[in-house]
Write a structure and sequence with these properties.
The termini are far apart. The protein is α/β, with parallel strands linked by helices. Strands 1-2-3-4-5-6-7-8 form an eight-stranded parallel β-barrel, surrounded by eight helices. The relative contact order is 0.13. The protein is globular and about 70 Å long. α6 packs parallel to α8. The chain has one domain: Alpha-Beta Barrel (TIM Barrel). It is 53% helix and 18% strand.
Amino acid sequence: MELFVDSADIKEIEEAVSWGVVTGCTTNPTLVSTQGKVDFKGHIQRICEIVQGPVSAEVVSLDAEGMIKEAREIATWSPHVVIKIPMTWEGVKATKALSREGIKTNVTLVFSPNQALLAGLAGATYVSPFLGRLDDVGHDGMAVVAEIVEVYRKSGIATKVLAASIRHPLHVVQAAKIGADVATVPFKVLKQMVKHPLTDVGIERFLADWKKVTG
């Protein structure tokens, strides 16, 4: 399973990529808005330069024609750009049209296997089930991701399952165990993944023992 960082913060993305385990990035209008007023094109291009891998940038139109127009423009910004498309019938139409043109897409705001099936049949490159938001409303988000993985494998759909709305490190492990292709992880959660109290204790003990050796 690949790890993407879910962020629009340049410093966070730079640090995450420096670790050598993050291969992509996902953004959305909300994440971009946290950076204040920015040149969206320049910001996405900068992220692409840092990541050198898939970077999702979202359209804001709600009709297929508008989505396609935006997507064609955004796709020219970098070969690493992946266009995020909302899961609606207009989004499905746009995804199909863009897939025929060879433009990579990430169908977002997916909450059911039916929605994921439609995105896959439309030729989406990625589909993003929001497991954390499903958990928030009393559903088992990880079970939905598992169903999507199963549907794709049994149907021969090549769309990659990108587990999104990750809330804690356990979500990452669970997503990997059920066969998700990618987990896009907030920077804070990525930092938590390396932490364990026994690791900290072990380092402290080794350093203390080494001081005894060196005097």
